[in-house]
Amino acid sequence: MSLHRSEGFGFGPAEAMALGKAILATNWSGNTDYMRPDNCLPIGYTLVSLEENYGPYKKGQIWAEPDVQQAAQAMQSLLADRTLAHTRTPRPRNDRSGILAAGRWPHDAQAIAGNPRPACQAALNQEF
User: Fold this and answer.
1) What confidence tens digit (pLDDT) does each residue in 16-56 have?
2) Could you list the residue range(s) of the whole structural domain that residue 17 is in?
């Protein structure tokens, strides 16, 4: 899950997708280059103008505020309907954007699966 306000490429979601995991992510920013409704669960958002500076983000810039309620419902749907999880699990060879099928993803996915960070271990082993 990546409920982000602003994302570059989105390596975390891309790596999880390369490992065949169902993904929920804010339907905003760089990850929309490879995430579509047929290979993930896109989460809606509201564009918000920043009222003050937040680190590198300056007052007046815009970011997405993810719909947390929709994300919670999507998570419940994944747990209740295993078929939904399988239909939203990406298949890199069939990825029309070509990003997940790029030559480096199999190598990266194997490296992650072979040596995951302890905090990611449970998620990598979770079967949907």
Assistant:
1) 887 788 899 999 998 888 888 888 999 999 999 999 998 88
2) 11-125
